[in-house]
Amino acid sequence: MALFSKQNKEVFTNPLNLDHPILGQVLGICSALAVTSQLKPAIVMGLAVTVITAFANVIISIIRNTIPNRIRIVVQLVVVAALVTIVSQILKAFAYDVSVQLSVYVGLIITNCILMGRLEAFAMQNKPWPSFLDGVGNGLGYAMILVIVGAVREFLGRGSLLGFKIIPDSVYDFGYVNNGMMTMPAMALILVGCVIWVHRAYFYKEK
Amino acid sequence: MAKLNTNSNAYIIIYSAILVVVVAFLLAFVYQSLKPMQDRNVELDTQKQILYSLNIRDLDGQEAQAKFYQVVKETFPYEGRKYYKCDVDGKDIVVVELKGMGLWGGIGGFISIERPANTVYGAYFNHESETAGLGAEIKDSQAWQEKFIGKKVFKDGSKDVALSVVKKVEDPETQVDCVTGATLTSNGVNDMIKACLEYFPEEVKLVEE
């Protein structure tokens, strides 16, 4: 099978639109709400989930024929937990500020429904390369939402993006005030709702 | 290769044992090889917080570390906390590490006190899990931390800690307005300051007896 056959391309692009983990399947909402108050942790979290989903998919796919059926969930969990721990250790060593901001949520990637969902639904039945594409696709789909929500929340809540001031001081002099509501997790829920709404209305076509 | 029965008990037990051992070795290896870098990050973070409390907020990485060693002269550990004797532009300053409880978890920070006037030179607070936008303001709001500057730690002649965080400021010499909407976290900061400023090692004593 060619590396980028039509089938493989679909595996990669489906989670970005039709089969989107957050928009279509509404998985992984919990962490999407928690880490999106600013753009930078949202990007790092998105990347972390992408890397972990991709590699967990590959590993599970490689050993899929040896995994005893009765303990397959346990095996999946062990693989994911090991990867998550490694990523969190690497973050602590190379991006300490970000790891402090993400705090417990890196550890909670272990319980991210997207991961378990993809391992159980895709990697257990498919070869390593399609599994890798599926993992990257789902991770990027998840990261996309985090970045959109994170950017909106940081812009409206703090008037900045990635920590740089975007709204000039002169606007504040006219009486503009940052919306403190945006820094709270509840607004992320509403924003995710809006994104799902827009997606369903304009991009999503029922099969 | 003969087809293994992947559902037999023996296979399952051996499989899980091997898997766990492999993962354990892998994690131990990663942890050991990254530990020195992580320790350095934690140390640098503490040093940066101490510099924040001395109103030096714009340094990062190597610069911050160099400045820290230039400013801090001596360290006195006491009951799991530390006191730092510092010299900033010729001023005699003692930085006190603070540890206490907020609303949802631990809070901490550093407060620097100029001697012999016993006035606050600067403050920086940190927290584990206070509410964003409310209790978390003790860390995020530099403006609030700067309210501490110039406050007196002791009233003249008294040995009780007078510096406090209150809802209604009656004595602007020693009292700081609490964070709006975060009374419980502010109370935590208040208790923490009271508890941690009670004792000072002999070398960095504030009040002359």
List descriptors.
heterodimer; A: 207 residues; 2 strands; B: 209 residues; alpha+beta; 5-stranded antiparallel β-sheet; two-stranded parallel sheet; 38% helix; elongated
Give a nutshell description of this structure.
The complex is a heterodimer of chains A (207) and B (209). Chain A is an all-alpha fold.
Structure description:
The complex is a heterodimer of chains A (207) and B (209). Chain A is mainly α. Chain A has one domain (26-202). Chain A contains ten helices and two strands; from the N terminus they run ααααααααββαα. Chain A has helices at residues 6-13, 29-34, 39-62, 72-94, 96-102, 104-107, 113-123, 128-158, 169-173, 185-202; strands spanning 160-161, 164-165. Chain A has a two-stranded antiparallel sheet. In chain A, β1 (160-161) and β2 form a beta hairpin. In chain A, α3 (39-62) crosses α5 (96-102), α3 (39-62) packs antiparallel against α8 and α4 crosses α5 (96-102). Chain A is globular. Chain B is an alpha+beta fold and 209 residues long. Chain B has a domain at 75-204. Helices cover 38% and strands 24% of the residues of chain B. Chain B is built from five helices and seven strands. In chain B, the strands form two sheets. Chain B has a five-stranded antiparallel β-sheet. In chain B, strands 6-7 form a two-stranded parallel ribbon. In chain B, α1 (9-53) packs across α2 (61-71). The longest helix of chain B has 45 residues, at 9-53. Chain B is elongated. The N and C termini of chain B lie far apart (87 Å). The interface between A and B is medium-sized, with 26 and 24 residues.
